Amino acid sequence: MAKTRPVFRCAECGWQTGKWVGRCGECQAWGTVDQSGPPTSRGVTAGPVSAPARPIVEIDVEEARARPTDVPELDRVLGGGLVPGGVVLMAGEPGVGKSTLLLDVAARSARAGITTLYVTGEESAAQVRLRADRITAVHGGLWLAAETDLGAVLGQVDAVQPGLLVVDSVQTVMSADAEGAAGGVTQVREVAAALIRVAKQRGIATVLVGHVTKDGSVAGPRLLEHLVDVVLQFEGDRHHRLRLVRATKNRFGPTDEVGCFDLDDRGITGLADPSGLFLSRRTEPVPGTCVTVTLEGRRPLVAEVQALVAASTQSTPRRASSGLDPSRSAMVLAVLAARSRLPLAQSEIYTATVGGVQLREPAADLALAMAVASAVTDRPLPTDLVAIGEVGLAGEIRTVSGITRRLAEAVRFGFARAVVPVDPGPVPDGMTVVEAPDLQVALRSLLAPVRASGQG
Length: 456
Description:
Layout: E1 8-10, E2 16-17, E3 33-35, H1 72-78, E4 87-92, H2 98-111, E5 116-120, H3 125-134, E6 142-146, H4 150-160, E7 164-168, H5 185-202, E8 205-210, H6 223-227, E9 230-235, E10 242-250, E11 258-264, E12 267-270, E13 289-296, E14 299-311, E15 319-322, H7 326-340, E16 347-353, H8 365-377, E17 385-387, E18 390-391, E19 397-398, H9 403-412, E20 417-420, E21 432-435, H10 439-447, E22 454-455
Helix pairs in contact: 7-8, 8-10
């Protein structure tokens, strides 16, 4: 009789091997490979089909049409709304506003005539009702259930027959057929697979709330992100009101759209035009500030970068950054010191953004450099000036995508002059640009009156 050899399986992606290894050969995760019993049989015989195959021209596409949620900023990210049978995973840090947003979406769906079931595993039904009262999300078509057992959740689905199901959160639901504690890899995989199966079979639009790890990625097995149709990241600083929703995976729409929301005591509301949140309200120019235009997905946002340069009494001057990528900020400061010969080596430098916006793209490099140069020379930039461009290690200013769209957004907010890379493309009416090939030319626009090199 042949000897049965054990099989080792990765808990993250399901990859199998005949011997134990410390690192998964598929997803490259460490410490996730463990013995899981005898190997699975490779011989599979034909069985009954769930539904006979049909010509593609006979498939009804209306079943996959997205239904708007009546929250335009969320519909923008989803690609039109929630798809019947589609499963959305929304992940974010605790307290960022996931439950508030989804409770509002559930109430709006109920008002539209869609029976909605909101299952909470982290709070009681009474606590959810209190939040619903605060954000005016109470409707007779919205059903609440506090369950942490998978069987009970499926029983609630059978009883209510919802068109929209919200589970908050998938890490709190536990299956009796799976090993481990709630939130473990095995439990999350089993619970998610069961909910997705029910959603597909019954055409229920389903939203699963997920936790995140310390580095901001979705908690649980990587397989969870492969199973669902849409993965949304809910981002925001709890000390600021701005919240961003972006899609990292979307089978029904684009992944380059971003939804902006304003979170306050009365609930969460969409921001169709959030740029004004990222600008300081002042009438006189102040040294150390420069405005740029960033692209969040396909949406241009006008944002302000601030810098403060102060004398240091320490052997190693402090450099701090808020809202900017620290490593990129350090690189821009090093290039600025080397190419412009500004006295930065013995100075403490603090850089920040306004309104809690996170500027991670290289297009903000030039605005950061000009803000620091303005601070160290104590010369304010013109209030109608924006700076757009990536700074290289040689001091050159490189072009970035969507300059025309960025300039059009700047014109809409009243800015009339811009420092941009060479050959920026079409320039909108009302905008005068200075084409700067390197930092020295860009800084001359700071130290001398801005002269037009092109105007539309």
